[in-house]
Amino acid sequence: MTPQGIVVTGATGGLGRALVAQLARPGVALLICGRDAERLAAVAAQARQKGAMVEVLQADLMQDTGCVAFDSAVTAFDSRYPIALLLANAGVKTGNRAGIEAEGQTARIVAVNLTAVMLCAQSVLPAMRHRQRGRIALIGSMAGISPQPDLLSYSATKAGVAAYATALRRELRGSGVGVSLVLPGFIDTPMTDRHLGPTPMLLSAATAAAAIVKGLVHNRNVIAVPRSLRLLIAISNALPAALSDRIDRMFRAEIQPDPDEADGPPRPPM
Hints:
The protein has 270 residues and is an alpha/beta fold. The protein contains 9 helices and 11 strands. The termini are far apart.
């Protein structure tokens, strides 16, 4: 029997590693994508220990060459292991100071968090539509439905992912291909370690990954982790803007620079 093909981008991040660990089992073939070869090898080794077949793609999805490499790898992988699931998980999180972001930071966040997500979905879509089955899971964020002033571009790109997921789901209705929008809250990962401020309802990466996979098994269109945080955000969003903004001030944070970001910390205000 041909193994079930699953593709995971951002597989070396905290949530990505946990998702791979949840998905790895006999009868599954994984294509895992990330930028760091050493970390990719470690994630692949752990997945193989669980009985999964694993292929690795080292690529930077911020670059056009990385997206082209991903598209080629997906085509080759799908010919061997028909892809049943894409988890478009790659993402970066950086902050700002007084509304000013570091030189090149905005373009980087848009490229990884939004453009690459859409291109990855389009890479797997033709074969899925041809087979009339499969699921595309796009990793958004609670910040996409509750935009944060400390995360300007991040919030905007995650809101874009939410809109794209909804539009794509409507486009694919009746095709046999499903779309899931995943809305994680705060997860205990190195990315969240750089968030110096309140982190309400913080979940471990393993707990969050288990909840996401459960939602995918049940073919949910929206998977909020945790669901209670999404409910609180919905209540806050329904309040008058002045009151909602006042509540948001209690959760202000400083976002430390991404160590992988070549451009350094945000510029001070002019």
